[in-house]
Amino acid sequence: MKFINEKVAYTKGLMDGLNIDETTNEGRILFQVMDILEDVVDALDGLTEAQEDLETYVEMVDDDLSDLEEFILDEDFLDDDDEDLDDDYYEVICPECGNVFITDFESFEDDSVVCPECGEPFILDETVSSCCGEDGCDCHQEV
Questions:
Q1: Which residues are CB-contacts of 132 (< 8 A; sequence separation ≥ 6)?
Q2: d(CA 120, CA 115)
């Protein structure tokens, strides 16, 4: 951007040095073109400044996001009891309404599961299998 400013300033200096008459048609056009060029340079300077501000802001947001990612993914963030989160939650199908939802390990262990859809409490029974009667089923239960 600096080179454009320099070229416009040099051209303005040339016009001033040539003592161009502003009362002639050619002089009025040249001075009008020079005014337009100066306005364009000012606008470009403003855009450059705005872009630099945006780049600074994006870098700050990126740094903050990186810090947040490190915090969330840090192993120290998890409690000792929550080392393997996949083992603490189970997918359950409500026998009343058929709603599929996720429940925590404590509810599974206490048999105190309540369906969030219909509100019916029920006891989890690990022996019931929904695959009976299917080809390749190994549970051998009658349908």
A1: 139, 141, 142, 143
A2: 6
Half-sphere exposure (CA, 13 Å, Cβ side) for 95?
10
Q: In angstroms, what CA-CA distances link 11 with 25, 26, 67, 88, 90?
A: 19, 16, 50, 75, 76
Question: What digits encode the pLDDT tens for the residues 91-111?
Answer: 778 888 888 878 776 766 666
Span 31-43, pLDDT tens digits = 999 999 999 999 9
Res 141 pLDDT > 80: no
- The tally of CA atoms less than 13 A away on the side-chain side of residue 78 is 9
Q: What is the CA radius of gyration of the chain?
A: 37
Unique residue bearing structure tokens 């040249």: 30
Q: Which token pair is 47?
A: 């855009």
The mean pLDDT of 22-29, rounded to a whole number, is 92
